[in-house]
Design goal:
The complex is a heterodimer of chains A (512) and B (362). In chain A, 32% of the residues lie in helices and 28% in strands. With 512 residues, chain A is an alpha/beta fold. Chain B has 362 residues and is an alpha+beta fold. Classes of the chains: A alpha/beta (512), B alpha+beta (362).
Chain lengths: 512, 362
């Protein structure tokens, strides 16, 4: 298995070439305004350095914050048609109800609510009004809309209404990019609809971006298939991923943790990723980040997503230190470290200067640090170690000691002994752990649905079958599939043994 | 005696009501969105002190009944909330003077506000639980043995049901629950109407004001980067029971309820100790190192240790860092009759009531 992994971050674009469990080559280049320039430069560096090793490449995997940033910065978003099927239910809270005004003003095209949808037990609320769907589609066509989001009440349980409405909309708006909520979301109408509408407004950008990615690979002479990373630490074929740009939201920290697991060979432990401004502490369980299962706001829009459970503390290589040493951060010189830090001839005492003064690392010019006494530096380093120790303890959920995986450009701030940790593991290529995480990712399929009127065993089996189907669609080889998560929650006040079942399956990606 | 609920009080009400939900009652978020929208359109709701009620005034006691999960798909709606109130007026041939909630804990804190926005009736600053409980016989009105009928129930479709008589509060619970399930496990209801005298004598008074004050304290603490858990304890005269991380959650349903236990391992001052909390929709009993230290009707709340946000029994998750706190219950819930209806044995736990608030036990 020979792959290229690329992580397009806010500051740097990192790329690695791996073969099996070996990192053959790694490069770091500045991210460019257009994203593509950075990717081309990274690929050129990588190819120049790796030589013949790029032959027989199985896959290129790109992790990008491009789509998240488009939402946060309100740029390149398409106006969408929002169709909700569920009247007479939920009438008073129409689509876009809790969106920030500026974002809604950019994205809201035609909003239509029509009769239809289902109950928790699969009965229709009322029969879907086909004529009303067609009328809504015509109004959307008249408004020139080509990105449509369709959400039906209880569609994670039965997608019938959404699929029928898709057929009608496609007839009225040939070539429309249609997002169906059951493909994306979980129970929770507004959150699922929000994700659907965000996905719809990113369709143009996703198409252009994946086409450009593909072109960049071709120009670099690479014929391997392209995959994009998802926020659950897995990947999707680019053709499929471009239909679901929202799945790339917040994939960066996930890739970093997955990369740390791969580089260290450890599946369980606490990952401490020290960057320039913050330290992200996450927990690895069976090689995947533990998830935060709560509502998350993206660009001010409430969504439900598979996000890694992270604790961020204000400590990084660029963290500013008060002259008396009593205050550490939260201010940071960030990416201006090479201009601002004392060791590089600047005027600001940073965490990096402290590490140099204490003799922990060699960076910059020690002569600039003559005024920083060694015992002072040791004292501040101890304080920083306490911050890390406390953060690690907050994230731990078991009493015993666990290994700590130290990654990121500022990981020299982590001492070799941390209380509550069995070992501090440092790995080569830790500064490009995110690109490694992208390169090694597998494909997954997830199901989160309510099942009723069947036994627990039958519900779990039905969920697993659908998760398998989705994993294969994302690019997984059927024979390699494994269940990585399976949980069911019985539901209160519902008869018929109703339960919400969540299953996630993961497998290796196949050849081209 | 009458005052307008100001727009800036709505968010604190949502935060406070969710804490008073003691893990159940459903998140107030969607009901809050509705009232915020109505306020944006210019509507205002009047809050009425219970003392302003004349003894023979008629008060509508409303609730949104059903499964919290269904409420996440079939969303709260003011027109739907109002229909059973109109049905009841028609059935009785009398007009209501005001409207109140059956439970201040969770989403139902907003149900009377939605009705008030549509009808112009004032909202009585009171409820019948002072928190959230899962069943109809767990109200202060049931404990006081007031009549439990009639009850009106409306579905979003053109289905309306009136339960004209029931043999007991438990029978009323069973019959109305059955109808609710049939129409999709969510229904708007208007419970047995109450007179002004009954509300003043047997209601849990001034709980809307209490919820707003609680929510405001938490939000202000958060804004000042103070400890929101400490602010909650301060505002509600509560006690910190345990600080820890959730190490395990077990859930099961029996008779339509979400039951289970969560196990916590201690942090900070509680390091080395473990805590277990049992729930039936709401948190019911807490054990520290195997010994019962707090039970219902004390309000047992689990808050996110950092944000102070309440955590519902349905969203408990391995690894969450939580503070378990207890708030004092309304006195009527601590009477022998009250404990029979809402004490630990009413939830199947073979233990006497254990409280952290000795003063005032009947």
């Amino acid at each position: 298995m020979r792959r290229i992994g690329i992580d397009v971050g806010g500051t740097n674009t990192d790329a690695v070439l791996i073969d099996g469990a070996t990192v053959l080559h790694a490069v770091k280049t500045p991210t460019t305004e257009d994203v593509l320039g950075g990717i081309r430069a990274a690929l050129a560096d990588l190819l120049a350095g790796a030589g013949d090793a790029v032959r027989g490449l199985d896959a290129v995997v790109i992790g990008t914050t491009h789509f998240t940033n488009a939402v946060i910065e309100r740029r390149a978003l398409a106006r969408v048609g929002a169709l909700r099927i569920g009247l007479p239910a939920s009438a008073s809270l129409p689509p876009f109800i809790d969106w920030p005004d500026d974002l809604a003003a950019l994205v809201r095209g035609v909003v239509a609510m029509v009769p239809g949808g289902h109950e928790y037990d699969g009965r229709p609320i009322v029969p879907m009004d086909h004529a009303a769907v067609r009328d809504a589609a015509r109004r959307m066509a008249d408004a020139g809309l080509t990105s449509i989001g369709i959400t039906s009440v209880f569609s994670p349980l039965t997608a019938e209404c959404e699929l029928e409405a898709e057929r009608i909309v496609a007839e009225e708006i040939p070539g429309a990019a249609i997002t169906l909520s059951h493909d994306l979301g979980r129970i929770g109408l507004l959150e699922r609809e929000n994700v659907t509408l965000l996905n719809a407004c990113l369709q143009d950008l996703a198409r252009r971006t994946t086409e450009a990615f593909t072109a960049a690979l071709q120009q670099s002479g690479i014929a391997a298939p392209l995959y994009l990373t998802q926020n659950d630490g897995t990947i999707m074929r680019a053709e499929l991923a471009r239909r679901f740009p929202v799945f790339s939201f917040a994939s960066g920290p996930t890739n970093s943790m997955r990369g740390a697991a791969f580089l260290s060979g450890l599946a369980d432990g606490v990952v401490v990723d020290v960057g320039g401004t913050t330290t992200d502490i996450g927990y690895l369980k069976d090689g995947f980040p533990r998830e935060a299962n709560a509502a998350v706001a993206i660009g001010g829009v409430r969504t439900l997503f598979r996000m890694p459970d992270l604790l961020s503390i204000g400590l990084g290589g660029g963290t500013e230190i008060a002259e008396d040493g009593n205050r550490i951060g939260p201010g940071s010189v960030g990416f201006r470290l090479l201009q601002k830090a004392l060791a590089f001839g600047g005027d600001t005492l940073t965490a990096t200067d402290i590490a140099v003064a204490a003799g922990r690392i060699e960076l910059g010019d020690r002569r600039h640090l003559a005024a920083v006494r060694r015992d002072f530096a040791e004292r501040v380093l101890t304080r920083m170690a306490e911050m890390v120790t406390e953060g690690v303890d907050r994230m731990k959920t078991e009493a015993g000691d666990v290994p700590l995986l130290a990654v990121g450009g500022g990981s020299f701030l982590i001492p070799d002994r941390v209380e509550g940790c069995s070992a501090v593991v440092r790995v080569p290529h830790h500064a490009v752990a995110n690109a490694v995480g992208a390169a090694i990712a597998q494909a997954s399929g997830e199901v989160d649905q309510v099942f009723s009127g069947m036994t627990r065993e039958a519900a779990l089996a039905a969920a697993q079958l659908e998760a398998e189907r989705r994993a294969v669609e994302a690019g997984a080889v059927p024979a390699s599939l494994n269940v990585v998560e399976m949980e069911d929650i019985p539901l209160s006040y519902l008869p018929g043994d109703a339960r919400r079942v969540r299953v996630r399956m993961i497998g290796d990606i196949g050849g081209p | 005696m009458f005052r307008t609920i100001e727009p800036e009080e709505l968010e604190p009400l949502a935060t406070g009501a969710w804490i008073l939900g003691t893990g159940g009652g459903g998140s107030p978020y969607l009901a809050y969105l509705n009232i915020r929208k109505l306020y944006a359109e210019g509507t205002r709701v009047t809050l009425m002190d219970p003392d302003a009620l004349a003894d023979d005034d008629l008060v509508a006691v409303v609730s949104n009944m059903g499964a919290p999960l269904v409420g996440q798909e079939r969303l709260s709606d003011p027109d739907f909330a109002t229909r059973p109130v109109r049905m009841m007026e028609e059935y009785l041939g009398r007009r209501f003077r005001a409207v109140m909630s059956v439970e201040i804990g969770g989403g139902n804190a907003f149900q009377p506000l939605l009705v008030a926005a549509r009808t112009g009736l004032p909202v009585v600053d009171a409820d019948a639980m002072g928190r959230a409980f899962p069943e109809a016989q767990m109200t202060s009105f049931a404990i006081a043995e007031l009549p439990m009928f009639p009850l009106t129930l409306a579905d979003i479709r053109d289905n309306e049901v009136i339960v004209t008589r029931a043999a007991s509060w438990k029978w009323m619970e069973r019959i109305s629950r059955k109808v609710c399930t049939e129409v999709g496990s969510i229904a708007a209801t208007c419970k047995a109407p109450r007179t002004g005298a009954e509300v003043k004598r047997h209601g849990i008074l001034r709980t809307t004001t209490q919820a707003i004050a609680l929510g405001r304290a938490v939000r202000e603490a958060r804004r000042r980067h103070d400890d929101p858990v400490a602010a909650t304890l301060d505002a509600a005269h509560g006690k910190l029971v345990f600080r820890g991380k959730i190490a395990d959650v077990q859930r099961r349903t029996t008779e339509g309820f979400l039951r289970g236990t969560a196990r916590l391992t201690g942090l900070d001052a509680d390091r080395g100790a473990t805590f277990e909390v049992a729930f039936q929709n709401e948190y019911a009993v807490g054990w520290r190192d195997g010994r019962v230290v707090v039970t219902t009707p004390d309000l047992i709340c689990l808050l996110d240790s950092v944000s102070g946000e309440a955590i519902g029994t349905e969203s408990l998750r391995y690894g969450q860092r939580v503070s378990v706190i207890a708030l004092p219950p309304p006195p009527i819930l601590r009477t022998p009759k009250g404990l029979a209806n809402v004490g630990p044995r009413a939830f199947g736990h073979d233990t006497d009531y254990v409280t952290l608030f000795e003063e005032g036990v009947a």
